[in-house]
Amino acid sequence: MDRIEKLFVRSKKYLLFLLAIYVLAWGFTPYQDIFLGLALGTSFSLYNLWILVRKSKQIQQAIEEGRTARSLGTVSRMAAAGLAVLIALKFPELFHLISVVIGLMTIYIVIMIDSILYICGQAWEER
Fold first, then answer.
1. How far apart are CA 99 and CA 54, in angstroms?
2. How far apart are CA 109 and CA 14, in angstroms?
3. pTM higher than 0.85 for the full model?
4. Which positions ≥6 away from 46 have C-beta within 8 Å?
């Protein structure tokens, strides 16, 4: 398993854990629209990560075969984020818009934290 697949597996675990927390908070707090918005945004964030990993594998395979590589799927990832925002705008009584946007950014926060932990772990192993 190469590095990007390991990153995807770790990030997927973290995001699913966060989604479980959001669902519990949705059920037990009065802020249901906020946590439902976070869950929607985080779900689309996980989908965007899956698209990015899939496209990265396709580009890697194309380079190995000597073919020209296509894009990383930026348009499809932005379309997915736009769809999440449109859902939040269509149903404002269910989804808090700012929470959806924060949920969409969750993957980037998770990747940064994972990278920091990976670098700290590498530094700790060298000592």
1. 27
2. 11
3. yes
4. 12, 15, 16, 19, 107
